[in-house]
Amino acid sequence: MELHCEEAAGTGYAGLVLLAALIAIEIARNLTASQITLLSNFFEVLGDNLAVLAIQPPPCQCSSNQNTVEE
Predict the structure, then answer these.
(1) What is the DSSP string of the chain?
(2) Contact, 15 vs 27, CB < 8 A?
(3) Within 10 Å of residue 8's Cβ, how many Cβ atoms?
């Protein structure tokens, strides 16, 4: 069975879970258990960092005049 990205994404969350599983299987092909564990840990840290960035307010977009201190 061949599943294209558009088909998987079009089925909602279930499609995303299926797509993620298919990608994981393809990435893990011909890797050792140790290599799979290393990649798993890397993607977990990447996801955690993205989650932290998502909750942070955007940085202040101050003009150069506002960054100076007047005496």
Answers:
(1) ----HHHHHTTTHHHHHHHHHHHHHHHHTT--HHHHHHHHHHHHHHHHHHHHHHHSPPPP---TTTTS---
(2) no
(3) 19
pLDDT (tens place) for every residue of the chain, 71 residues total: 565 555 544 567 888 899 999 999 999 999 999 999 999 999 999 999 999 999 987 777 666 655 555 55
pTM for the full model?
Answer: 0.57
What is d(CA 56, CA 54) in angstroms, rounded to the nearest whole number?
A: 6
CB distance 10 to 29 below 8 Å: no
